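SEQUENCE-TO-STRUCTURE ENTRY
===========================

Backbone structure tokens: a row of integers, each naming the local backbone shape at its residue.

Task: work out the structure tokens from the sequence, keeping to the layout shown below.
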Amino acid sequence: MNKGWALGLKGLAIAAALSMAGGTLAQDATPAAISAAPAVAPVAPPTPADVAAAATAASASVAETAAQHSAVQNDAIMGYTRTAPTDRIGQPVPKGINLQEQFTPIGREAKALTENILNPIIGVISIFVLGLMFWVVFRFRSGAVEAPSRTTHNFTIEVVWTLIPALILLFIAFPSFRLLANQYSPPKADLTVKVTGYQWYWGYEYPDYGGISFDSVPLSKEDAAKEGTPYLLEVDNRLVVPAGATVKVLVTAADVLHSFAVPSFWVKMDAVPGKVNETWFKVDRPGVYYGQCSELCGTKHGFMPIAVEVLSPDDFKRWVRMKQAQDGIDPTGPGIALEPTPVSPATAAAAVRAAIAPSTAPQIANTEAPAAPAAAPAA
């Protein structure tokens, strides 16, 4: 029996030892497992100052991209080459008696009316009246008529010479009224140019393009010969317009009466001091077209030429950009203002993230505690 009690006490002692060893191992293993896990470093949320700085940095990034885009656009549209005139186009022809070739819708319509209707009617009437005059002189001369007629009225003749001219005028009226309606009912303007007459030169202004303005004076005989352009028609600064555009011309004067006239456009408008008159033209063919002041305005009236240079739309943009650069004007106007750089929401968000990282973004600190030594096996 004593032996049984001894065995029982020995078993209890072994069980208690194993229980105490297991608890100790568990306590040693738990801190090691916790220390092995990455620790998150406490980081304060971004302050308003940090957010503002990030937004400023993002804006600077977008602005830099826009500046690069603008530089590319400037390089693409800068530059202009002066166009050489075409012989017998847009200028007088030696020994010519006909109208100049027309290059505007109004000019073509007016020339057709003149050459197809007015000139034939005038020719027929002139020949008829001249022939009638010669017949009367020959037929009713004193040597051929013994007793002159005393007729004072003839109803038939009076009806004929009243009705026929009325019908002729009515025939002319319909195309004439249509031409006037088209001339004074212009389409919507694509470009506005202000023309001012001075003694004795012209001034031009482009209000649609930041107020580009310049004066236009005739070239000397030597300069015109050097350029190969017609003397007394060529100028130093031409009026430049784009092809295919409806150009509204506001005409006025600063001193005396002048007249802005370009025959190949069928344009002639008086320039009156204190008053603004309006005309328009639309030219599809690029080239150089000449005109002159058509109102006696003083001693140098014959030295007020007009030169209109019609360029393709792209070349016109280059010319406008060149003039704006010369005058210190920011790119502005239809087709000239720099296009905004498209920035998508994703691009903007990426720029903001790049601006605020890594200084203000929460950081994960991968700090590991030293591993605990392995527990010794229980005895």
About this structure: Residues 2-36 form the longest helix (35 residues).
